[in-house]
Amino acid sequence: MKYILYILTVLFSLNASSQNAKQHIREGNKQYSEKKYEAANASYKKALEKDSKSAKADFNLGDALYKQKKYAEAIEQFQKFADKTDDKKARIAAAVAKAKTKAKAKAKKEHEKQEGLLRVASSEEKTSFKPSNEESE
Fold first, then answer.
1. What is the 3-class SS of the chain, one letter each residue?
2. Residue 130, by phi and psi: left (phi above 0), alpha (psi -120 to 50) or beta?
3. Whole-model pTM?
4. Architecture of domain 2-124
5. Taking a C-beta distance cutoff of 8 angstroms, is the pair 100, 67 a contact?
6. 136 DSSP 8-state letter
7. How do the domains of the chain map onto residue ranges?
8. CA 2 from centre of chain
9. On the CB side of 73, how many CA atoms lie within 13 Å of its CA?
10. Distance, CA of 130 to CA of 5 (rounded, Å)
11. How far apart are CA 68 and CA 49, in angstroms?
12. 84-131: per-residue pLDDT in tens?
């Protein structure tokens, strides 16, 4: 009889924990739909604290991070999701986030190169241009 009560107690607590995680996911989804990505991020993390095996919370957290342009963290979350499931969506999401990260790094490097060229051109212009003291006739 003790064992039956113990098993029922464990099952009930697991179910309560799972329900609590689902509540946090629903809360995060609402915040996400309102474009409150940081708040959604926090809700998904709370869901994962309650149920670390929640693939849905992992994916949604990755998506919220992606919307905040935190691409490296999003990739990590999508990978966690992919490790928990065979869903192709996770691999695609991780690939998109990686591509975005690479494109962002490439654009930053190109921008820095252009700024350098502008600085060089500007300094050459200042040294090569000398106003004439003679008046035009």
1. CHHHHHHHHHHHHHHHHHHHHHHHHHHHHHHHHCCCHHHHHHHHHHHHHHCCCCHHHHHHHHHHHHHCCCHHHHHHHHHHHHHHCCCHHHHHHHHHHHHHHHHHHHHHHHHHHHHHHHHHHHHHHHHHCCCCCCCCC
2. beta
3. 0.58
4. Alpha Horseshoe (1.25)
5. no
6. P
7. 2-124
8. 47
9. 13
10. 94
11. 21
12. 777 777 667 667 777 777 766 676 677 677 777 667 666 665 555 555
**Distance set, CA 27 to CA 41, 47, 55, 105 (Å):** 10, 10, 16, 33
Residue of 67, 64, 97 whose CA lies nearest to 79: 97
Length of the chain: 137
Q: pLDDT per residue over 9-44, tens digit each?
A: 554 454 444 568 899 999 999 999 999 999 999 999
